[in-house]
Amino acid sequence: MRPAFRPLARAHSLPDIVVDPVEEGAPNRSDPRYVALCLDLIANRQLVGTHIGFELSADPVWDMLLDLYIWEHRGRDIAISSLASAANVPPTTARASIRTMRDLGWVYRQRDPVDGRRIYIRLTKKAHAALEAIFEGVINRSGSAA
After folding, report:
1. I need a labelling partner for 84 at 20 to 30 A (CA). Which of 67, 96, 118, 135 fits?
2. Separation between Cα atoms, residue 99 and residue 14, nearest integer Å
3. Bridge-based pairing state of the strands 78-79 and 107-111
4. How confident is the model at residue 144 (pLDDT cuts 50, 70, 90)?
């Protein structure tokens, strides 16, 4: 009888296997002004990266937070690979950034209920509150500059 297949795990990747408990009450619908501003900020980041180069203008944590905010607003789950793509960084950089954000209480991991191998990244209430405070500040500054 053959033993069941088990992929080898690298020692440094083991902490990523742990899935956090679901944070109850994390909002998934946002103020339309915040969504519009978030989309503008993402477009601006893409514009800068296109003209200066993503390697010179990389800010993966900010890019991933913005992307998570938009996708959660749309009611969609997002995986690590998608976040790496959104931030224009390699998956290793994305995982390191996600680990740091998790350690600081900005994101948590949630297992896909259909495919338990897949893990989604979600914003915490703390992250939502901070992002919305930033968005409100930008909107207020923009309104007072006019």
Report:
1. 135
2. 12
3. unpaired
4. low
